[in-house]
Amino acid sequence: MRFSIASIIGAAFGFAMIIGAVMHGTDNYIAFLSIEGFLIVIGGSLAAAFMSFQASDRPAASHETMHHEVVNIISWARTVREKGLRGLEDQLGSRNKIRDPFVRYGLNMVVTNYTAEEVRVMMETAANASFERDTTPARILMAMAGHAPAFGMVGTLVGMVIMLGSFSAEMQGVGEGLAVSLLATLYGVITARMLYIPAASKIMQKQEDLRFRNFLIAEGMAMLVDNKSPRYIQDRLNSFLRPESHHDMDLPQDAPAAAAAAAPSPTSPAPAAAAAPAPNKPGAKG
Predict the structure, then answer these.
(1) What is the pTM of this model?
(2) C-alpha 224: how far from its chain's center?
(3) Is the pLDDT reported for residue 211 higher than 80?
């Protein structure tokens, strides 16, 4: 499971605030350390998480930008318009060009004579199934976040039982023993709120973005089956993107490209000689 730099900085900042508050409030730092409470919370949370969920594969999925996907789909639409499905099959056969398994699955649907609605339904089903599989770590972390405070209470109760079991006429150590027994609850709440829940939220955000991207691809593949024009596909897929990320077909850029291809090469003497009379005409008139 990967964590971004922002996640690490946020966790470090939160722990620093808690440690700073403890150091400002008391000089007895050792009173906030309890190996017993820490082991009860962490061990109990891990055990409950492993008992609650079965192991599953967690493939690392790359998330490309939405704009890049729109550009690819428009390019495939142009290929279908110019070369038909045969040209798209040739691109599909090149594994070096299309490595994303979800995109390859969609292109396979396009060239297999399914209807547009069938392609859309099957790809959306695949996107939802992938989302359910890849969010399993987030559900595990949320389960650990729920179990950690509960096992913190268990640690507190165990500490209180031990304290009361050794209760004597001397009341000096009662307050210290009670403080140590409450540390298990403190550890449980801190780990749940600062580790498990933020990590689960990060995973959910990533997988939701990926599912949204897969829905965009599914819609694009369905329009490829319908043989929609590249302009129509662009306008339809732009509705998935933020306005500032909308793709605009490079119609004006095709002209400069053609002009550059038709322009005389600076290393070619023949075009330079042919172009020489042009500037002489105004001089002759003058």
Answers:
(1) 0.66
(2) 26
(3) yes
- Per-residue tokens: 275: 């172009």
The amino acid sitting at 211 is R
Query: What is the residue whose two structure tokens read 């082991």?
Result: 39
The residue count of the chain comes to 286
Enter the tokens of residue 194.
């600062």
Cβ distance 69 to 107 under 8 Å?
Answer: no
What is the pLDDT, as a whole number, of residue 122?
A: 95
Q: How confident is the model at residue 117 (pLDDT cuts 50, 70, 90)?
A: very high
**Within its chain, how far is the Cα of 261 from the centroid?**
41
Is the C-alpha dihedral spanning 95, 92, 103, 126 positive or negative? negative
* Residues 185, 191, 196: CA angle, nearest 5 degrees: 135
Helical (H) or strand (E) element with 209: helix 197-225
| Summary mean pLDDT of the chain | 75
Which of 7-11, 43-47, 229-233 has the largest mean confidence?
229-233
Number of C-beta neighbours around residue 127 at 10 A:
21
**Short-list 136, 141, 138, 157, CA closest to 45:** 141
Structure tokens at 175: 């307050």
CA distance 223 to 120: 9
The secondary element (H helix, E strand) that includes residue 11 is helix 5-25
* Sign of the torsion angle spanned by Cα atoms 226, 231, 234, 235: negative
pLDDT 10s digits, 252-265: 433 333 333 444 44
Residue 15 is encoded by which pair of tokens?
């722990």
C-alpha–C-alpha distance, residues 194 and 46, integer Å:
16
In this predicted structure, what is the pLDDT of residue 252? 45
| Burial (CB count within 10 angstroms: exposed 0-12, middle 13-18, buried 19+), residue 11 | middle
